[in-house]
Amino acid sequence: MSPWMRALLLQDYNTRVVLLGTIFLGMSSGMVGTLMLLRRRALVGDVASHAALPGVGFAYLIMERIHPGSGKWFPGLLTGAAISAGLGLLCSRGFARIRRIREDAALAITLSLFFGCGVVLFTMIQGLPSGQSAGLNEFVFGKAAALLQADVQLLAVASLIVLVTCVALEKEFALLCFDEDFASVNGYPVARLDLLLTLLVIGVTVLGMQSVGLLLVVAMLVIPAAAASYWSERLRTRQFLSMLIGGASAGLGVLISAAVPKFAAGAVIVLAGTALFVISLLFGRTGGIVWRLREQWNFRQQIGLEDLLRTCFEVLESRGPATGPSDWLSELPISKAELEAARDWVSGRLPYLLHVACYQGLLRYDAQGNLRLTSSGRRRAILAVRTHRLWERYLIEHAAETPETVDRRADRTEHLLRADAVEELEALLPQIERPMPVPTSPHETAASESSLLPRPLLKAEDQHAQ
Amino acid sequence: MLSDWSWLDTWIVVTAALAAMSCALPGTWLLLRRQSLLGDAISHSVLPGIVLAYLLIDQLEHAGVVTRETALLIRHPCLFAGAAVTGVLSGWLSELLSRIGRLDAGAALGVVYTSMFAAGLLLIRLAADRAHIDPGCVLYGNLETIVTDTWGTTGIPRAAIMNGALLLLNLLLLLMFFKELTVSVFDPAMAVSIGIPADRVQQALLACTGATVVASFESVGSILVIAMLVVPPACAVLLTERLSRVCWYAAVIAAASALGGHLAALIVPELTRRVFNWPELGDATTAGMMAIAAGCLFLLAWICSPHDGLIRQYRDRWRLQRRIVEEDLLGILYRRGSLLHEVSFAADLGQLMKQPPRKLQPVLDRLCRAGALNLQGGGYTLTAIGMRQAESLVRSHRLWESYLAEHFELSDRQLHNSAEQFEHFLNPQLRETLAEELRQPQQDPHGATIPPANPPASQS
């Protein structure tokens, strides 16, 4: 049986134990990580884990001193780690309260100070006869593959506590994350909740240290939470997803490292999480890059279509109204050359837009190869021109724009105006005649300039409108 | 301990000091831009770059593209380049991530550098049979052995030259672009409007930090690099308010922590061995001790800072408290005197102030010495000076009550409580503004007379 099959089918007892333990860890850290990310304190976990190092060293030294040979007693080391991580976070709080030290600097100072302490202690320990085999380096680089059943039981109990706490205090934590002041005004014990959350972070960090290592445990807190933030904006869903992603990356990492012995579990767990993060970043439903690009693309296309239809209208208008305000729009053919001349098109944009407009049934080619507006195209064209000109007039009237410059200014905003905004514009500009579907342009349109038709008709109408 | 100080120790201190100083200069700007953790990210993410460069050279050598001698020669620059590339890449990626992915800046950093560090660890394990890279070396540095690697026959450690060059470069860039850096830190919008490309300054700073971190971390380790990037500038910021001084102070503090760190590394383990009678304990690394030394300097700066130091804060608070007690005492004496025309005894005053008389005694003595009180047969009366001070205090109190009563509907008790606090903080100008706004009232809302304003001479 290949190692892959052995790993995937959970043939080894050891793999099963490790898998269970790390999945618990991944789930609880995902849960807590979401809250920390919302509080914009994602990197607090990093400081907690680095600050735990001197605690491990001190605990080892003290235990060795009391009873030589007992230095590796695991609960003792964990207690030391937790105490020193707590001290570290306390320290960073204290530093952040100094007026000119920001939170990031406070975190960095604490991190380097405590880690420096830890490094010094570790090098001193290495001189001890028992220090070489102390396995303290496992705290730095992790030893997921060597988790024991007792460790897993500890992880399971701790994760359960974390999950139950987070679910039970869901409302309180949500308030703390979104509006601390509101929570405190409403009588929630904000300071105590904050302390509890910090304790949860310390717990997850210290427990995670032994499986993924202190350098990478912050990844378990940050990456699943960040990945989940691309899928939902509801806190509950986000927490659930973050839990799933955390568990999944932990599981994937353990399975891969079980199949390929060279791969250290800690690193693979983190990289599996990174892969899930990248997928979320690209395809996530809220804020994923692909969806956002698609929306942008659609919007740009709509802007282009509106510009095209408006140009069609202006080309037709420059020939002068034939019979009535709406008939002449569909009667007359438009040639591509006219459209080309009427507006500065980015090269290749016009053929593309024509293609889309024909596809959407806004324009059609007649037998001579000229373009004609369809009925829906005519409606959309009138709407676009109306919006454009109303906005132009509004800008001239209320924003001190001149007729020469207003065309460009209006171009930027008109596509964002919705039907209700257009109605408001009509109400604000009473001098525009109501039955008229399209107000006249306050300036000469590009199409009219390039047109060969006589001008007077247009001018007369302009004066009439003003 | 210190008796066997050798040239080696001197070079260790010099190398470490050069590394620390070259870090402190770009670190100042990172601190001011609130990007202190960027150094953390960069120093973690150099790992994959180093491993990749190492493996690349190894492959080239195996494939026969380069000879063994050339490989040895180019290994060092290649490792440097690889580290610098991934280091800067991490900073750039996390910025991109927080912009395009709309992620919190800290979280973006966390995602990027943990992933890169994990990739580095994995690469090391994959290449374990060919390359002997100890991730511990990257983390903790190797100051003690690196100084033995000297440049030719000069006896100057290669690392010292490297760090010195970086320090010079940073210094040069700092002097050349001080104005640009300053403006783009404090007001990016203004920087852009006067033609300084703020985003390019940011990228240049990132590249500079990357190169510095890479150059120093091989001698002092990646963790110490963070310490040296952030802690000395943080100390300097506490000690001075002028930006140009912050840079110099930071450099000096960095050098001091290098010296202190090495001294501590020599003394502390020896001391511990003796005190605990535990001869097996090993030596301490200079790198770790430097971080601790820098941390201690920071704590010292926090305590002694002239503007925000703990000592200064406690002194100010203590002085304010003393002034409030003094003023309250004068106020009580004034009110009693104006009602009863009698001397007050310390015990009575203590009862009124709700404080034990023995705590009040030093304050009373001080007021006597300042000439505000008279001691007459065991009791106290106000002197003319004390009377004037008390009058202005009571005037503040009653004016504030009148002002509150005119603008808010508050009970007498609330009026009094608020005035009890505010009377100490109304300066003469504000007091007279209040009086004018209230059209020079003669009585407060309780019907008590408001003492008249003092002649200007007495206010000084």
Name the descriptors.
heterodimer; A: 466 residues; mainly alpha; ABC transporter involved in vitamin B12 uptake, BtuC; Arc Repressor Mutant, subunit A; 2 domains; two-stranded antiparallel sheet; 22 helices; disordered C terminus; B: 460 residues; three-stranded antiparallel sheet; 19 helices; 3 strands
Description:
The complex is a heterodimer of chains A (466) and B (460). Chain A has 466 residues and is mainly α. Chain A folds into two domains: 3-287, Orthogonal Bundle (ABC transporter involved in vitamin B12 uptake, BtuC); 294-465, Arc Repressor Mutant, subunit A (Orthogonal Bundle). Helices cover 71% and strands 1% of the residues of chain A. Chain A contains 22 helices and two strands. In chain A, strands 1-2 form a two-stranded antiparallel ribbon. In chain A, a hairpin with a 5-residue loop joins strand 1 (363-365) and strand 2 (371-373). In chain A, helix 10 (190-212) crosses helix 11 (217-228), helix 11 runs parallel beside helix 13 and helix 14 (289-318) packs across helix 17. The longest helix of chain A is centred in the middle third of the chain and has 30 residues, at 289-318. Chain A is elongated and about 105 Å long. Chain B is mainly α and 460 residues long. Chain B folds into two domains: 7-234, no CATH class; 315-459, Arc Repressor Mutant, subunit A. Chain B has a three-stranded antiparallel sheet with strand order 1-3-2. In chain B, helix 1 crosses helix 11, helix 2 (37-63) crosses helix 10 (198-220) and helix 7 (158-176) packs antiparallel against helix 10 (198-220). The radius of gyration of chain B is 33 Å and the shape is elongated. The mean pLDDT of chain B is 85.
